[in-house]
Amino acid sequence: MPLSINQNSHVSLHYRISLEDGTELESSFGDEALEFTMGEQTLTEGMELSLLELCVGDKQSITLTPEQTYGHRDPDNIHDLNTADFPDDITPEKGLVIAFDTPAGDDINGVVIDVNADKVSVDFNHPLAGNMLVFEVEILQVKND
User: Fold this and answer.
1) Is CB count within 10 Å lower at the N or C end of the chain?
2) Which helix (H) or strand (E) holds 115?
3) Which residues constitute the domain of residue 103?
4) Which residues lie closer than 8 Å to 139 by C-beta, 6 or more apart?
5) Same-domain pairing of 63 and 87
6) If pLDDT is split at 50, 70 and 90, which confidence band does 101 have?
């Protein structure tokens, strides 16, 4: 009986993430496979849960809700920052993605959504928040400890 993926498995797979309309966002098909250990947060929790019990050779396509992936867009994650607080080497422009340091020392990306004379509006929601996503996989290898 082939090994199936459990919560501690080391997995190698090809994947594709698309919007419901078929727009491909990311894919490893035709490229290097993704290798990871379940539970290490390489994938969202919902994506990992969709892999449980799959075996080598299995293919699956599943539509995941925002709750299973990157959550819903949160208006509280949009912040107005003072233009003067940006370093001289960064000119905020609409659509620009900027890495910020959190108080905990982590990096978080924000997307500039509006710029005026003294304020810059930055959206810290995940770019895929609020979207239904199609998650396709082909399981290549499963190792269980």
Assistant:
1) N
2) strand 107-115
3) 75-123
4) 5, 11, 12, 13, 51, 54, 55, 56, 57, 58, 59
5) no
6) confident
